Amino acid sequence: GGCxxxxxxxxxxxxxxxxxxxxxxxxxxxGEPNSFRHPNTTNLHVHGLHISPRExxxxxxxxxxxxxEYQYHYEVNDLQPAGTYWYHAHHHGATYFQVASGLAGLLIxxxxxxxxxxxxxxxxxxxxxxxxxxxxxxxxxxxxxxxFSFPTIQNIIxxxxxxxxxxTEENITLLEWLEREDATQYLTNGQYIPKISMRPGExxxxxxxxxxxxxxxxxxxxxxxxxxxxxxxxxxxxxxxTPYVFIPDAGRVDVAVRCAEEGSYLLFSRNAPDxxxxxxxxxxxxxxxxxxxxSGEPIRMRFPTSTPERPFFNSDLRGFPEPRLGGQxxxxxxxxxxxxxxxxREKDYFRYKFRTGTVQQWYLVNADEFQGHPYHVxxxxxxxxxxxxxxxxxxxNAPAYYDQGGxxxxxxxxxxxxxxxxxxxxxxxxxxxxxxxDRSMAGYVRIGEWRDTIFVPPLSSITIRxxxxxxxxxxxIHCHFLNHEDVGMMMVTGVVRPWQSxxxxxxxxxGAYPGTCKFFDEWPDVRKNTPTL
Length: 533
Description:
The chain is mostly beta strands. About 5% of the residues lie in helices and about 30% in strands. Strand 12 and strand 13 form a beta hairpin.
């Protein structure tokens, strides 16, 4: 293999085998659950595919130990949306370390030519692959002074390969030099600020994957035009021009790019001051991703104005009647590492269960005062229906929950310790009010668009819907800040056949339900609650 891993190209309906051999080495410490551990145990996740979560397909709860191998056999859905996806290591406890080490690759589901309008086919495989620009971008150099820098986690997790024995001309190790120079950089396809060549007026399809593992991207390309085609592998209803593209950790975007004049243009990410209210204190990478060199004979091309049809399970659900919903659920981000008031437990400890063939309505809420979290769900994409008024509690680092007036909630975390926890504290509501802000701000998603990963801003509430199509088994949910996921921000839900029972789930943690503060609060429709100010 290489760093990054090879790009895989498939089509809807394909079947393919992948033999995964673990040659990472057999000398590794153990470690406690929900901690950084097992640096050399691994597995594989095909991120974003609408596919079975059972063996031998996308089961991310199996463990491929050092020196062992596993034969994956994937049966891609006949209606799998064509788009940009990726694959990466996903062993709980080692996901952050292994993805930061480069165990990730692009996975592209190619369009059928007959399904694409002419302008889209002109910049897409299979007939015009030269117009595509696949970009797997991530912070694969992370040697700055940070609590989650690569050498820090490498030391915690017990990985023994270090750069201490490589001495520079200054008589210090390479590791010491990297840390001294704050060597932190997003790499694009493993390269430092690669050059992309284009002709004036040429349109190319950039397929950008943000593998993180800890930063958002807010991408700008001054002097050129960007037209959004798809997010997370799902085409938008109609392509639209945009001044920037926001990609949460693990998100993807397909964007058509055109630079009209000769010259050099920088594709960079920055945390623009006018976007702070939608993002909060969430880390956004600041730096250059790639350089666009435009020269040669001008060419005339037209941007796509339409996109292929989506499959029935990605049809518009906004008008679906609430009485016919097949279930409602709440996913709550608390103080790290808590998800739904607890941490990841056994792989069959389902926090919620639902049936195939149903339309689900879920509420994503974030009690964190300052930081947002990227929510990711396996198997099914979801549609963004609404940004709601946030009525829930405010998380403190005690860890404890308080109402919006600063008074201690009676519905708490499973690890809540009343000893030395104050009854009243000052709470910061700076980022409250996402339901009223301009939806074009970075961090927000246009209502009606589809995602498998979405940024959930601090003190926010989002309504999503999806159709639970076909696949049964374990549906994994987690924060895609992988350093958060590894230490507990992950949980499992169960998907069953229409005739099977959905009893036996554990939606509460120690009697407290996500999104609530007082014992009389509504659940699961937390929109109905009234915050105490």
